[in-house]
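Query structure, 182 tokens:
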């Protein structure tokens, strides 16, 4: 059995355990939706894991965050890439907030350049495409239309399929919903 198969199996078991306290139809739906996107979707584990960790940080879901970090470790991500996936949520919170503002004002040009430092986007530890994937997913959760469109464009130009983008959006939706469970 390959390392990816073992870590995927472990992830499925961990998700089962995370959702065990929620035996209701809602809990089951969320668990099954999360497993479907992560285990049977269009995203490769190496792409899904950093997005999952950034989404967990974005929504404040520690349990999913711990599972995502453990999954990244099992997939042999270096510590600096795991840290970047966690911290990427903070960078995207800043950018999503600012560009959401810019997209809602009457005269966007009146405000000039953003003036916010974002050099981490130039050479991310995770690589450009993986970081764009987590940025897209976090932007979906944060509801920044400007950022969603910008990251979608970059990902489409890099060869991401509509199915991958759709799964990143679904992943964000399910993680956000799961974070609302009591």
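Result returned for the query:
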């Amino acid at each position: 059995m390959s390392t990816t198969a073992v870590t995927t199996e472990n992830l499925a078991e961990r998700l089962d355990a995370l959702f065990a306290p929620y035996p209701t139809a809602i809990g089951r739906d969320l668990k099954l939706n999360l497993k479907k996107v992560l285990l049977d979707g269009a995203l490769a584990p190496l792409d899904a894991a950093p997005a999952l960790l950034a989404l967990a940080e974005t929504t404040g879901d520690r349990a999913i965050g711990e599972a995502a970090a453990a999954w990244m470790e099992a997939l042999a991500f270096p510590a600096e890439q795991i840290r970047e996936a966690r911290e990427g949520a903070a960078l995207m919170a800043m950018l999503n907030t600012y560009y959401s503002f810019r997209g809602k004002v009457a005269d966007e040009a009146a405000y000039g350049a953003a003036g916010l430092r974002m050099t981490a986007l130039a050479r991310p530890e995770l690589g450009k495409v993986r970081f764009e994937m987590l940025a897209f997913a976090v932007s979906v959760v944060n509801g920044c239309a400007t950022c969603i469109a910008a990251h979608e464009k970059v990902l489409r130009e890099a060869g991401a399929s509509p199915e991958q983008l759709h799964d990143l959006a679904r992943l964000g939706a399910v993680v956000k919903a799961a974070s609302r469970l009591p």
